[in-house]
Design a protein that fits this description.
alpha/beta
């Protein structure tokens, strides 16, 4: 599976740029074989509002950490089919789907994925979940890396692992060098307190020599799952300098939403979910949604392949919603047009496509062939609203297209 997955990743990432860029792209491709996102970094609440999920809808999406897949299932669509080029992401998503069906109750499910750092989680896996997995997924979580089974990560603080988890660990190290303690942010009682914390404690970090130096390397954002092509789009928003773009997105994450309502802020600055009984959680982890998730989990499916390849095997007019995450930022024009040909062929009347971009602008006009794009209508109002409401704050733009037939 590794050689096939590597070939798929190379096809997605390698854009045949200059030699230095090519070396970075090859490194990124190899890193992406492993776990990148222990938690997805797109807000599923924004997604679900834009998708307007209805019974009977068949959705397709990119899995990443699969918080989106499971959250969509709580809305009771007919199916959610997800793909990911990382075998680790596929294994994580399949683990979540199986756990929703096999763990005895919500308390066990929340312990496993909400705490994700309790010693008893490996026992829960062995007793309930393991037998419900397919062979390759079971082998992935049973394998030793290097001294303990992979599943033991759920007893050690799972969200601290993967490229994103380690990137956030590095962020905390830099914060400690700047003598920053995030506790006042996490206990703030108003947006004004959060903004004051950013202005006095965080903004000065962006003037540190170390931060400015690191931000200048395109590989520095690999931990956010950002390849060289997407780094360049971010830098373009800052007139060639990525640092002011990062500063503004950190400000949005810290200041634009009440911290008690933003689990992305908790993951970034506490490296866990808010442990309070009413703490913010993704939809799939909320107790009120557990019964629907359990009932619908068998409608979810995750495959290790490209989205274009998956859609090529689907019937004409069979899909109602498409979630592309930020994958199009990685694509050249040929790949982009191949994807949208399949999206257009498989779209049912009124189908919705949502995606995010590292930069602020919609990347489709001028790149997707006019005869394809003319069959879709861009929803500027919903796109602007989604951009403003996305609590993860990492992307420059959220975009929604509707199929016109």
């Amino acid at each position: 599976m590794s050689s096939t997955a590597q070939a798929q990743l190379d096809a997605a990432v390698l854009q045949q740029g200059d030699a230095a860029t090519g070396r970075l792209e090859r490194l990124f491709s190899r890193l992406f074989l492993g776990l990148v996102y222990p938690q997805i970094w797109e807000d599923p609440v924004v997604d679900m509002e834009a998708l307007e999920i209805a019974p009977g809808d068949n959705l397709v999406c990119i899995a990443s950490g699969s918080c989106n897949v499971l959250s969509y299932l709580t809305a009771s669509p007919a199916s959610v089919t997800a793909v990911d080029l990382s075998p680790a992401h596929v294994a994580l998503g399949r683990l979540k789907l199986a756990a929703a069906q096999t763990l005895p109750d919500y308390a066990a499910f929340y312990q496993f994925f909400g705490h994700a750092g309790m010693a008893g989680n490996a026992e829960l896996y062995d007793r309930y979940v393991r037998s419900g997995l397919d062979g390759s997924t079971r082998a992935f979580w049973d394998s030793r890396q290097p001294f303990h089974r992979r599943i033991s990560l759920f007893g050690k603080g799972f969200y601290r692992y993967g490229l994103l988890g380690r990137f956030l660990g590095a962020v905390h190290l830099i914060a400690r060098l700047g003598r920053v303690d995030f506790a006042p942010l996490l206990t703030a009682r108003s947006l004004a307190e959060q903004t004051a914390f950013f202005d006095t404690r965080i903004a000065p970090l962006f003037d540190m020599w170390l931060v400015r130096k690191l931000a200048g390397f395109r590989a520095s954002l690999f931990g956010l799952g950002i390849p060289p092509a997407q780094y360049d789009k971010l830098a373009a928003d800052g007139n060639g300098d990525v640092l002011p773009v990062l500063r503004e997105r950190v400000r949005k994450l810290m200041c634009d939403f009440p911290v008690r309502d933003n689990y992305f802020a908790w993951q970034a600055f506490a490296r866990c979910y808010d442990p309070a009984p009413d703490g913010s959680l993704p939809p799939y982890l909320q107790q009120r949604n557990f019964a629907a998730l359990r009932n619908n989990a068998d409608r979810g499916r995750i495959e290790n392949r490209s989205l274009t390849g998956l859609l090529a095997d689907q019937a004409k007019g069979s899909k109602h919603g498409y979630v592309l995450l930020d994958a199009q930022d990685w694509m050249n024009d040929e790949q982009l047009n191949a994807l949208w040909r399949e999206i257009t062929r498989t779209a049912a009347p009124g189908a919705r496509v949502i995606f995010r971009t590292g930069g602020t602008e919609d990347i489709l006009p001028g790149r997707v062939r006019p005869e394809i794009l003319a069959r879709w209508a861009y929803d500027a109002e919903k796109s602007a609203s989604g951009t403003a409401q996305d609590r993860s704050a990492i992307y420059g733009g959220f975009h929604l297209y509707r199929f016109q037939g």
